[in-house]
Amino acid sequence: xxxxxxxxxxxxxxxxxxxxxxxxxxxxxxxxxxxxxxxxxxxxxxxxxxxxxxxxxxxxxxxxxxxxxxxxxxxxxxxxxxxxxxxxxxxxxxxxxxxxxxxxxxxxxxxxxxxxxxxxxxxxxxxxxxxxxxxxxxxxxxxxxxxxxxxxxxxxxxxxxxxxxxxxxxxxxxxxxxxxxxxxxxxxxxxxxxxxxxxxxxxxxxxxxxxxxxxxxxxxxxxxxxxxxxxxxxxxxxxxxxxxxxxxxxxxxxxxxxxxxxxxxxxxxxxxxxxxxxxxxxxxxxxxxxxxxxxxxxxxxxxxxxxxxxxxxxxxxxxxxxxxxxxxxxxxxxxxxxxxxxxxxxxxxxxxxxxxxxxxxxxxxxxxxxxxxxxxxxxxxxxxxxxxxxxxxxxxxxxxxxxxxxxxxxxxxxxxxxxx
Length: 420
Fold this sequence. Notes:
Keywords: ATP-binding, Ligase, Nucleotide-binding. The chain is built from eleven helices and 20 strands. By secondary structure, the chain is α+β, with helices and mostly antiparallel strands. The longest helix is centred in the first third of the chain and has 14 residues, at 21-34. The protein is globular.
């Protein structure tokens, strides 16, 4: 345990899991601007040190499956609270949201309830609760063998989607267009679920494949009341899998004022039992209206909140720290533009020899180019591997078409060479 300075009168907020620098540094930096941060993490801090008051290392119970030591983390949080005035706790890591909620309850702090966190983490719980509340979502069934999966898919009609009940980032999610593909898809989804926390392993959700554009909404929950922050339009690829290849956020997106959509999301958060925090909800816009795909008890991944900050000037890390402390956040947009990201995947499995990306000056509207792998890295496409991205590109524009045009130009100038 390290302690390099004294906490301010505002009290300390504990962050459980700091994440990968490339994806999460902006959130830690934002939170640290609001309140002193103490991190509980599975490894000693490196880049995090400039942002934190102190840290405690609690190793994972299973590093391969990212299983946290929940009791160890709770005891570490109690130790911090014995030395400092802890006013909040939060996490933006999918594998740690339930543990974080348990810490909040143990210390008597605002935050996600453990019930609410588990209802989001366990996709079967999500479906059951939203169904009972009459909220729009795909037809679904939880099955534990391929034969039942086939019978369920036949009754729903094709296409269907099979997914693990406790993973994130579309890992193990697969579309099936006919009965001949069910057995293999069940094995893929079931195997993916066995790569995560054992609390959620075994069995697969079979769902109706609803059609329409997909969006995600990061929203703030204060005392159970949900308010939208950023709305992203999602792009997916590598069919029949659902790898997320891009997102576009507009500060003036008219869907942010769509009362049908907002009403559904407010009701869903109330039914799931979420208290305080930021959530990431995925929705399909269908002919029958908005249909909830999932609700996640954390900020969005894929740098979506970062896009939101670039598009609006609103800082999600700051808001997350306020919510953790039970303070009603206030935000005023300082920007108004459209910002998008494109993730690039290799054409096939292979070992990276080199990656070349354009400079921002090469493409109008190009803000950032980020190489995500080093030479020698092995990239595997689904189902052998997931999230095998070699670069990302971030562009801004005055409209969706302008932003998409800049992203396409930048992607065309990006190359990867794989070892033969």
